[in-house]
Specification:
Helices cover 41% and strands 17% of the residues.
């Protein structure tokens, strides 16, 4: 065998060896001592969980999905209110103390939608999703919201069209190099690359007067797979609705920042709302986008910018000329959260909160009903346990949130209204959203990383003879790069993802500092219905979790998590994994400045020497960039010292708590300290330019939206080359980590 074949063989063999070691290490039966429990308590808990599992029924999930997704149930709709009342009735029948808590929020709906090409020829876009005979609910047009982006401003603008790829800051840097300005023009961006709300935000910053967003078939259509109804993926007329509220500033009602949107809440004027867009924006289908894109003039875009429509993609900027006219009804709508409580018998003032939203853009069988029905079945099974005489030690709270789609409104307004009580009582929040078939995804507070790994090890995958943990780990081994495979083989726990935004964990984790977990299955379900009229029961039963096996499995994962947190002798927070993860973040920001320094030096030399100009095609338009100031040396010593203290404190707690419970009479105090650890990771002053976001370790990126930025104050200051702010944020984060370590030290003394 040749050298190339030999090295390939060795790499493949190494993967098999690593995979075998992982499987061998993780196949032990789930009969050990559980985190937070004594040996005797673990036996009782496992018996309880077996009873819980046995009562779960897939047919309930299917029946509830058909009931809840039968009609469009968007924010403020009659069907949405009826769904809330139905769920409240169900929770009451299961033994929960249940109420509907309402808020009044700003929710605009379309009055006028017009997009037309005015030159080189006149063409008016359809802006319509037609009903399909294969989809029984797609014809409910009188009840459907038309396709639009909520919280776009009104506007009537006309201008040349420019294609901006995904509309990210990096894409505009490419336009700058090509000498293309969007000032006074309308931009068209494809979905992807960043959250949709970032696209009009950056466009407005660059001087654009309007924004169109379309779904390109390369990302979401026939390039990926067969389109609906033949296959799962987005057809030519499908449109992704969605909010474009500037949620990286703050989520929730735009008129009541930081306070609950109750009937008597003090509201700001509409003109003063920071999270509304500055330009009109509208989503369209790729059928509507095609004639606009086909008529673009100018240079051909680079390969990475090209979609899958059957013509050449150009930048534009001259022709075509496009008009956008949008008018909205700026109404206040009532939203309805369902809140169900099962009081704790020992620690009633320690709350384990579990939530999933119930509102949808249209029928929403996948998003959010697939996750909601799993939550409901989980609550029903826990209710059955309670009816048999069992009681949780801690209070369990189940929530079905309204108006998540518009900007996490139901959860945010509830959290803001009850902030004082939640700051005292909320121990952990567990979130789900839509659910599919495939692999378990886990994200959240890394103080709960070991806990949720242990939960996942004890739940069987419905398609494979292994746990959901093993299958998720196998995916990392097969699909990951060399470093991911190495970590998968050597690290006892699978590293969970950090949370940015995009679902209802945001106000809990990033505003109040409540330790949170986000869970869900996916990767094997067909896509393409997202936020369209085709997100239906018919679509889900053909291409989603068709037998609801993974819905039941999600109930098992979340139900175990809820039951263990509610019953544990000591709350199962663990800090060595958190310290390890923070260490990776510190290493990343340190390396970021080093790589930026090197890249800046190299680029400046290429500019000044003429090398960069020499490689450009003289027939192409190219604007030479200006040299950038050198990246200074940044002192990360305060952050590194805080990390060392954190690592030492985490190890000390691990040693002190190993195989022990709290000293007699101090259990409640220990739990309160453990709950408070996540709170210490927040700052009342919040992040720079967005004080609502208080968490210093995790936040949605200012220009990513849903995507997370870790050590956000430090990282974003470096990315923006604000060296003064970077140094200030290093000190703030270091002090935050020191406070966290001090709380761990307090907890260790309880043993």
């Amino acid at each position: 065998m040749g050298n190339t074949m030999k090295s390939k063989f060795m790499r493949t063999a190494a993967v098999f060896v690593l995979a075998a070691s992982v499987v061998a290490r993780s196949m032990s039966p789930g009969d050990g001592v559980l985190m937070g429990f004594t040996a005797a308590g673990s036996m009782d808990q496992r018996e309880l969980e077996a009873r819980f599992d046995a009562s779960l029924k897939a047919e309930n999930l299917k029946a509830w999905m058909k009931r809840l997704a039968a009609r469009p149930h968007f924010t403020g709709s009659a069907a949405g209110k009826a769904n809330a009342e139905f769920m409240a009735e169900q929770f009451r029948s299961w033994g929960f103390d249940t109420r509907i808590e309402s808020f009044d929020v700003l929710f605009p709906t379309p009055k006028t939608r017009l997009v037309e090409m005015t030159a080189p020829e006149k063409f008016t876009l359809k802006l319509n999703e037609p009903a399909l005979k294969e989809d029984s609910t797609s014809g409910q047009q009188d009840e459907q919201l038309p396709s639009y982006n909520a919280y776009s401003i009104d506007g009537d603008v006309t201008g040349p069209l420019v294609y901006v790829n995904y509309g990210t800051p990096a894409d505009y840097e490419e336009l700058d190099r090509r000498g293309i300005s969007v000032k006074g023009k309308i931009v068209i961006s494809r979905y992807g690359g960043a959250w949709r709300g970032i696209k009009p935000k950056v466009a407005a910053e660059r001087g654009a007067i309007g924004c169109i967003i379309y779904s390109d078939p390369k990302n979401d259509g026939y390039y990926v797979g067969d389109v609906y109804p033949k296959g799962a993926f987005r057809n030519e007329n499908g449109v992704q609705r969605g909010s474009v509220m500037d949620m990286p500033l703050y989520p929730g009602d735009p008129l009541t920042k930081g306070i609950g949107a109750t009937k008597d809440a003090k509201r700001i004027a509409l003109k003063d709302a920071e999270t509304l867009t500055r330009i009109p924006v509208l989503p369209i289908s790729y059928a509507d986008a095609a004639p606009l894109l086909k008529n673009l003039d100018g240079d051909v875009v680079p390969e990475s910018w090209r979609g899958a429509l059957p013509f050449t993609y150009h930048y534009g900027g001259g022709t075509p000329t496009v008009r956008i006219k949008l008018e909205f009804n700026w109404d206040i709508k009532t939203i309805n959260n369902v809140i169900a409580k099962l009081p704790g018998s020992v620690f009633p003032d320690q709350w384990i909160i579990r939530g999933n939203h119930h509102d949808a853009w249209v029928n929403g069988a996948d998003d959010p009903i697939s996750g909601l029905v799993a939550e409901m079945e989980e609550a029903r099974a826990i209710g059955e346990l309670a009816k048999s005489g069992w009681r949780p030690k801690r209070t369990i709270v189940y929530a079905a949130w309204d108006a998540e789609e518009q900007g996490l409104m139901g959860s945010t307004e509830w959290v803001e209204t009850h902030a004082a009580e939640l700051s005292k009582k909320a121990a952990v929040y567990i979130n789900t959203d839509s659910n599919g078939r495939g692999f378990l995804g886990m994200g959240g507070s890394h103080t709960l990383e070991r806990f949720i790994n242990d939960v996942a090890r004890d739940v069987r995958d419905p398609q494979m003879n292994m746990s959901v943990w093993e299958r998720a780990r196998a995916q990392q081994m097969v699909s990951g790069g060399p470093s991911a495979r190495k970590e998968a083989a050597e690290r006892p726990d699978m590293r969970i993802g950090a949370l940015g935004s995009g679902s209802d964990f945001t106000p809990f984790l990033q505003h109040l500092g409540i330790a949170s977990i986000n869970l869900g299955f996916g990767g094997e379900s067909g896509g393409g219905s997202y936020h369209s009229i085709y997100d239906s029961v018919d679509h889900y039963l053909r291409f989603g979790d068709t037998d609801f096996a993974y819905g039941v499995t999600l109930s098992k994962v979340c139900g175990r998590a809820v039951l263990r947190l509610a019953n544990a002798d000591t709350l199962p927070f663990e800090f060595t994994n958190f310290a390890d993860t923070v260490g990776t973040y510190v290493g990343e920001v340190t390396r970021l400045t080093d790589s930026m320094r090197e890249e800046t030096l190299v680029m400046n030399k290429m500019i000044e020497s003429g090398m960069l100009k020499a490689v450009q095609d003289p027939r192409d338009k190219f604007v030479m960039p200006q040299p950038k100031p050198e990246v200074p040396k940044i002192d990360f010593t305060p952050l590194q010292n805080a990390l060392k203290r954190l690592q030492a404190s985490a190890e000390a707690y691990k040693k002190a708590s190993a195989g022990k419970t709290a000293l007699s009479g101090t259990q409640k105090q220990l739990d309160e300290i453990l709950i408070n650890t996540e709170r210490t990771l927040t700052s009342n002053s919040g992040l720079p330019r967005r004080d609502w976001f208080r968490h210093q370790i995790y936040a949605p990126g200012f220009y990513t939206g849903y995507g997370v930025k870790t050590l956000p104050g430090v990282r974003e200051a470096i990315e923006q080359r604000d060296w003064k702010e970077a140094r200030e944020q290093i000190s703030i984060v270091a002090a935050t980590i020191d406070r966290f370590a001090a709380e761990i030290d307090r907890a260790a003394k309880m043993f």
